[in-house]
Design a protein that fits this description.
two-stranded antiparallel ribbon; 2 domains; mainly beta; secreted; Pectate Lyase C-like; 24-stranded parallel β-sheet
Amino acid sequence: MLFNNLLSAVAVSALVSSVVGTSSRNSALPKRPHVEAAPYGTGKAFPKSPARSRKDFCYVNAGKGKNVDDAPGILKAFKKCNKGGTIVLDQKYSIASPLDLTWLSHVDVIITGEVNFKSDPYYWADHSFKYDFQNMSSFWKIGGKDINIYGDLTKGASLLDGHGQAYWEEMAVNKTLLRPILLTIEDAHGLTMSNLRMRNPPNWFNIIINSTDVLISDLDLEAKSLNGVKIANSDGWDTYRSDRIVIQDSVINNTDDCVSFKPNSTNVVVQNLVCNGSHGISVGSLGQYKGETDIVENLYIYNISMSNASDGARIKVWPGVETAFQDLLNGGGGLGRVRNVTYDTFHHENNDNAITITQCYGQKNQTLCNEFPANLTIEDVTMKNFWGTVSTKYDPRAGSLVCSAPDRCSNIVAEDIRVQVPSKKPPVYDCQNIDTSTLDITCRDPTSARDTTNG
């Protein structure tokens, strides 16, 4: 054991023995991009980030061999160049152990190489960071104050890769496998992330937790199965217990929510996204945990191009009774509200539903939901400037706005909704327990059971 520890110490020393970069190496680095929220912001100026020291550049030399773990070397570089320096990841790295980087301060992180997470489902099931909410776990977590993470999309690489294929295949035989999120931003206050590629997360791509003033821009996300195995989850971004978040100017190809606003997400702007294959831009799911209060309010979703998705604009709330949905996803009975949410300028191409509002998430029995209405209310929601075409799946129906009781939804507005159905028939929407006088759509009573595949 002592011999192995000595070897590990020598290996880490080699990885960081030349962390202070030379001027010639520094000259090849991209400059920190000027990233600002546009055209909309959260209502408060983003914290200023001063220039970093021109001397403190920490490079990490990637290890060699099959069983290498670059996590210790990366950790040492972050410690060395924290508080005013720049960490550079410009090689091909393998991360085989969890990394806690939630203590950063006044630091830039340049990723022009590749950060690959070891494909070992059961190692990570045991050793990843765990969270109670929805059985989340994570490879690594980044947080602190005044952090800029960026790459260079013009030169390839600048990549975070979760190598999710092995996890998706294992999910076919083990539905309860805990799978890590590719990147967790936790307790971050004043963080930008831009110009990066993210590929194949075992679970969600990103979660932003307990954070304020986070700006995400110019990211390229893709989850792709090599052999037709179903990709499990793969949300693009989830926000949770966070305030003043902007996600913008990015492309997402995935199989679950493009963006999801989890409990206690406030003052969030999502704008200028191209989403393909997803479950839409989703508020929720909310009200999952009995006795917990979920507040989601002040959201502005602008200029979205959504294609080949199950839903476009979506709000999903659990019913007032506990219910089982999936092996690791069940709940209902939680409290709270959704308030002041706007979806503005939304293009649809081959989405099953242009608009979905449900307070019966996870429950197949709509009658039971009506008997036990959601304890979480939905109010002051506007959807406007929608156009395009939905898929043939429910033609001529183009969406569904179903609340569990008349007093659970109020001031729901739909205006300038020009979404068509493939048959060229007049599009209709299932509407129930909702004031239709503020809806610029043709409503009908629900005529068939809901498709509960996605909740």
